[in-house]
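Exercise 7. Predict the structure of Enoyl-CoA hydratase/isomerase family protein from Duganella radicis.
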Amino acid sequence: MSAYIHTSIGNGTGLIVLDRPKALNSLSLDMVRAMTRALLAWRDDAAVDAVVVRSSSEKAFCAGGDIRFFYEAGRTSPQNGSALVEDFFTEEYSLNHLVHFYPKPYIALMDGVVMGGGMGVAQAGPEARVRIVTDKTKMAMPEVNIGLFPDVGGSYFLSRAPGALGYYLGVTGITINAADALYAGLADHYAPLADRAALDALLTAAPGASLPAALAAYAAAHDAGDSVLAANRAAIDRHFSAGSVPAIVASLQADGGEFALNTLDVMATRSPLMMCITHELIKRGATLDVADCLRMERALVRRNFENGEVIEGVRALVIDKDNQPKWHPATLDAVTEEMVQAMFAPVWPDYAHPLRSLD
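Solution. The predicted structure, encoded as tokens:
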């Protein structure tokens, strides 16, 4: 097992604790494998009625994949990335699929930073999931900020957010809080830190089989407050339903209000190509099931490493920290429809796709 994943069983509950606090629980391949092994072992274990996934720290549930590792491995073999990068994404997306269809209640306590890969191990399917957010929750699919796209099933769960919220969250990569996550359908319950002792006691004392009902009763007494997404919903739907990223930008520019100007400022820092890729990804994801969304993302991530956009984004924001990524193309008007569609071209024949066994 990974040194950063701790598992135990008690009172009918299988507990997974992410414990890599210095890296905000960023997922390594070993961590993905450790979580997968535990969930597979517990799936048919009569001693486990529910699973709880949480962090050892309130600072972060999981900040995503280990992007420093992606950078170093991608530079080693810039055309295709290393074999370990290939393994990481194949196994991470397989874990996302396992989580989505887990047959037992799957409870994610999303304290602190919940981004990218952290969303992938929290967004279980509607039949099993209990997603808890707190005062410290900082949720995002911020991949466009580093030259990537919202993967780990983002094409599925963002495309099913109300109205144009999925396009807004994916194309801008903006960070939201607990109230926003609840409003967007990306969380189920709110747990205030002021009442954390009661929540922790409940998670320990309630038998696994009764945890979902007990958590629902607990959460009914707590209100996360007003949602900024709700306040801006009309503007979000108006602008982000425009049909393309250039059309969204034109709509925002024609508006000129505070929300529009702030959104334009954010989008100006993102990869123009990856914003357009993300828009197309969410559009396509709306017509696909979970397995096909993950297969689409798996091919796209290979194209992304071939393109090199993510390597440059990680260099600028994480490695050198100059915050001056040299995006290619550098401007939105230089992104063509041919560039976007080429990124979605099949990488493998269907029979050889790394995720061909997902159903």
